[in-house]
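User: Second chain of the day. Same drill as before.
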Amino acid sequence: MDDQNKNLILATALSFVVILVWFVAFPPPEPDPATETPTEQVQGTDGTATVPAGTANQPDAAAPVTQAPVAAVEAPRIQIDTARLDGSISLAGGRLDQLRLKDYHVTIEPDSETVTMLAPVGSPDAYYALQGWAPAGDLPADAVPGPSTEWTQVGTGALTVDTPVTLEWDNGNGLVFRREISVDNEYMFNIVQTLSNNSDTAVRAAPYGMVVRHGEPSGLKKFFILHEGAVGMANGELTETKWDEIPDADVDPAWGRPAIVTKDVTEGWIGFSDHYWQTILIPETGTTFDQALTYDQAANVYRAVTRLPTRTVEPGQTVTSDTQMFAGPKEWEVLQAYQKAGISGFVDSIDWGWFFFLTKPIFWLLHELHKLIGNMGLSIITLTLIIKAVLFPLAYKSYVSMARMKELQPEMEKLKADAGDDRQKMQQGMMELYKKNKVNPAAGCLPILLQIPIFFSLYKVIFVTIELRHAPFFGPFQDLSAPDPTSIFNLFGLLPWGVPEAGSMMALIFIGILPLLLGISMFLQQKLNPAPTDATQQMIFAWMPWVFMFMLGGFASGLVVYWIANNTITFTQQYLIMRSQGYTPDILGNIKGGFKRTPKDSKK
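Assistant: Same format as last time:
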């Protein structure tokens, strides 16, 4: 076997390994129904004193108190209405628990339902946010508003970009709590909590925020390339915690349940992240606070909590706490704008993965190309041209080396005949031959190996970024984040019946136009060189394009478009460079020779 074929087999094996790993998907289990739907109130610390759990009148520093469920769906509500959001706030607990995204639909059909971000207790996949004050010291739990407390709206009207709303609750013993909620023209809410002490004694309380999810969300992808679960930033360090990692955490004595706690955060945020959407709590910058992820096994409830330091409120004094909450899609430009406004590392809430140093610039370039071109499919093709241009110097050396290897073929065959079974003599002779003719036998592998992390990064971009969701190309290809919707089963729409359901075995067998073009482009690229003389190698190379065609048939259409463009450009580059080196590939002859399964001499 000559070195060129060794290199090709090595590169092929590496590519197969990468693709097979990517293709592993874990189907989500059926969600467990929650046995109950309690809500929680966090309790604050009593200054710097160590408060043992269970001490009378001095509850544990962070232990939650379970309260009775509330009929949040039926409670009085304040409507939310902006250009991008609609929903409502429940006056029961002052919860933000109904939110929909006006710009995003469940399917590509324009009349399909809009995406639901938050849902109240009692509905499937209950998911909501609430804020409050955790009592500390001698302050009893019922002296502060809880998750079920009935608030009163000050004034009337809906929450809009121009009109914030204010909620108020008086505990009847001199403490008045107010909560002003505003929203910008994107997806950021601002919650200002105030506590006024009109009594004759000082009180202590700690402001907190909480995002609550009842059970794992339905429809989890559970695909290793995608992070779904909790995401947080604490003092410049990003953490991504999967759903199943939270219940597996050690039981924290302060919380009395599995909890992942980060203390003394001065700059950060925490919340829950889905494939394209997230809900994040962002305490006021410069304020020290604690973050916690907890799991209530009995109720199957996850919580992301931020708790600020305990505040002492003297008689006649008012204290204020300011928190932001993001609830919406992970749009690059929106997150970037918030990051520039002071939210540290907010763009990193997008799951860029291990190759972030490639994924981020690739996405940025694709995003800018899309803004310029206006068609995501054409933008992917243009991106492929740019990547191939950047790698062209390496590709040029590779193809020149391959052409020179062809010229050395007769001398290599002579070396093999002279050396016989003496492998060391054969290797020494080949090394001298390479050195004399300035040929690098490994040069053919380098561009292919470089393509692997680039391919992986582009796959990550196409799979995780919302800008690719429902992005159209042309004709039937109206969602480049989804597999090819066409199928051989109905002759690509010419026959009057539907295609197999996406994700089914039939859909993988009856592939669409794009995977078929991918297989053809790989086949033609392969035929730039004659088939190997070894029968085993011939079989591997003969099947490789069609195996890849079926393997990638279920991948995102945008990724297949990239690979087709990459194969086409590579074929053109290699053909022209080999011609410039005096070697003219006999493509038609190589195809015929491959069908005959007999070796064929190359032309010069």
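The first helix runs from residue 3 to 22.

User: Great, on to the next one.
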